[in-house]
């Protein structure tokens, strides 16, 4: 992972923790893909994709979360959930960083 990517993930984790989420795992990997951050928001398990762009041109960080990327995150999350019992409510969030601007998108895509 690049220094910029690691810094963005650290910034996102700190931001989410300040807003009440408990970080459970960072850079969780399996054959199906990678999940940048896994957190708890109360009883809800939150799978977080972190995207950073130096500038917001070409749609910015949020636009870089393609349908293919979403599918990889969902597949990895399904694999992770095989290790969790009982199954909690889940959601997929994104933390998008465009230059100095950080945006937390809650429930921005789903497993369907």
UniProtKB/TrEMBL annotation:
Q: Which CDD domains match?
A: PoNe_Nuclease
Q: Which domain of life is it from?
A: Bacteria
The record's listing under InterPro entries reads: Restrct_endonuc-II-like (IPR011335), tRNA_endonuc-like_dom_sf (IPR011856), UPF0102_YraN-like (IPR003509)
What Gene3D superfamilies does UniProt report for this protein, alphabetically? Answer: 3.40.1350.10
UniProt xrefs under NCBIfam families = PRK12497.1-3, PRK12497.3-3, YraN family protein
By sequence similarity, the record places it as follows: Belongs to the UPF0102 family.
Q: What is this protein called?
A: UPF0102 protein GCM10007860_21170
Source organism of this protein record: Chitiniphilus shinanonensis
Q: What is the lineage of its organism?
A: Bacteria, Pseudomonadati, Pseudomonadota, Betaproteobacteria, Neisseriales
